[in-house]
């Protein structure tokens, strides 16, 4: 089992100095907008992923007027205590340690404290561009497979270098393609691994998403999900060679795993144009719960689940189905934020489970 028993925040976002003990498996966090509910969830996320879920730059998470921040989380993992500390120094250097042992590479920590978060802007996974769905997929696979994370990081590094070279070819009128051949060989090496892992993983994951969608909706709907990749129809070297002239012209790499997507249809029409807000939310939760279940099966214990403002745009039946699964049918720790204390108490009381309520 994995649980968080205490977290301390120093100069993190809107918190000058605050400590939160967690005494129950189900934790409700209530308060008006802007008081720091989401920031508290993000601090928990930091402990699991070494970074924020909501911001790209660590410096954006420093309390206004301060020079750095510190997060300290006390976890229990399979009965063993873990003290997780994340410090952002005045210099911008980030330090991360577990039980006083610092990491040389932050990526080493990914997957040790599995966690799933659902936030309002996550609806972009359904309605936004393909990069949103790849981000969801990669976040999950990186927690399951350290080798996948390394290959993905290497691929993105080479992709950036290749794109830079394509721009310099146009600017300097370079006609020698030897360096491009080197980049293509490296992209193929890293990209093939990522493609194979995605293809293999999604064979089981996408049916699980459909199963959870039906469970949340309470009835079956004609939903179809498919993995889309340019590599279905060509090998990586063939794809890069076929698109090379176009790449030189547009000065970027137009083929590869960075164009992959999960195609979603309802009644044989694009889901994001046909679906209601309730259906979009249901599919989002289905994807996240499939992520939760996949991590639980792989790790042999439930991940932490962070639910930020999930009560909006879901009707009472769908919300009950969601909470029944995450709070009653699973033994993992759940953190849920809401602006209405009475509403969250009502739902928890209906489920008949012990809970802790934190008012901010």
Automatic annotation (TrEMBL):
Chief location category: cytoplasm
Tree of life domain: Bacteria
Domain RecF/RecN/SMC N-terminal: 4-345
Keywords for this protein: ATP-binding, Cytoplasm, DNA damage, DNA repair, DNA replication, DNA-binding, Nucleotide-binding, SOS response
GO MF entries: ATP binding; single-stranded DNA binding
Record bears the keyword Translocase: no
SUPFAM superfamilies in the cross-refs: P-loop containing nucleoside triphosphate hydrolases
UniProt entry tagged with the keyword Nucleotide-binding: yes
Pfam family, one: SMC_N
GO biological process annotation, one example: SOS response
Binding annotation for ATP: 31-38
Compartments, record wording: Cytoplasm
GO cellular component: cytoplasm
PROSITE patterns the UniProt entry points to: RECF_2 (PS00618)
Function: The RecF protein is involved in DNA metabolism; it is required for DNA replication and normal SOS inducibility. RecF binds preferentially to single-stranded, linear DNA. It also seems to bind ATP.
UniProt family annotation: Belongs to the RecF family.
This protein's name: DNA replication and repair protein RecF
Lineage: Bacteria, Pseudomonadati, Bacteroidota, Chitinophagia, Chitinophagales
Record gene name: recF
């Amino acid at each position: 089992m994995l649980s968080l028993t205490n977290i301390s925040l120093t100069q993190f976002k809107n918190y000058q100095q605050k400590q939160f003990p967690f005494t129950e498996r189900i934790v409700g966090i209530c308060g008006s907008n802007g008081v720091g509910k989401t920031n508290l969830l993000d601090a928990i996320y930091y402990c699991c992923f070494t970074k924020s879920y909501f911001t790209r730059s660590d410096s954006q998470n420093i309390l206004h007027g301060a020079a750095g921040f510190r997060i300290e989380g006390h976890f229990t993992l399979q009965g063993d205590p873990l003290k997780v500390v994340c410090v952002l120094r005045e210099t911008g250097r980030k330090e991360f340690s577990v039980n006083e042992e610092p990491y040389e590479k932050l990526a080493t920590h990914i997957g040790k404290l599995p966690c799933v978060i659902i936030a309002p802007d996550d609806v972009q996974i359904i309605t936004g561009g393909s990069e949103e769905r790849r981000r969801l997929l990669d976040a999950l696979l990186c927690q399951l497979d350290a080798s996948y994370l390394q290959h993905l990081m290497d691929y993105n590094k080479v992709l950036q270098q290749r794109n830079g070279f394509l721009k310099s070819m146009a600017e300097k009128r370079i006609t020698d393609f030897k360096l491009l051949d080197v980049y293509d060989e490296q992209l193929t090496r890293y990209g093939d691994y990522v493609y194979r892992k995605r293809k293999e993983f999604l064979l089981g994951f996408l049916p699980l998403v459909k199963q959870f969608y039906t469970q949340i909706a309470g009835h079956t709907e004609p939903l179809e999900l498919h993995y889309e990749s340019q590599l279905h129809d060509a090998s990586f070297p063939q794809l890069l060679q076929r698109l090379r002239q176009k790449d030189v012209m547009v000065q970027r790499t137009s083929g590869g795993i960075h164009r992959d997507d999960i195609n979603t249809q309802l009644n044989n029409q694009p889901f994001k144009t046909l679906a209601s807000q309730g259906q979009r939310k249901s599919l989002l939760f289905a994807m996240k719960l499939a992520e939760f279940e996949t991590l639980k099966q792989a790790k042999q214990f439930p991940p932490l689940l962070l639910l930020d403002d999930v009560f909006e745009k879901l009707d009472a039946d769908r919300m009950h189905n969601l909470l029944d699964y995450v709070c009653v049918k699973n033994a993992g720790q759940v953190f849920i934020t809401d602006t209405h204390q009475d509403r969250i108490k009502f739902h928890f009381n209906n489920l008949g489970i012990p809970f802790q309520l934190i008012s901010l």
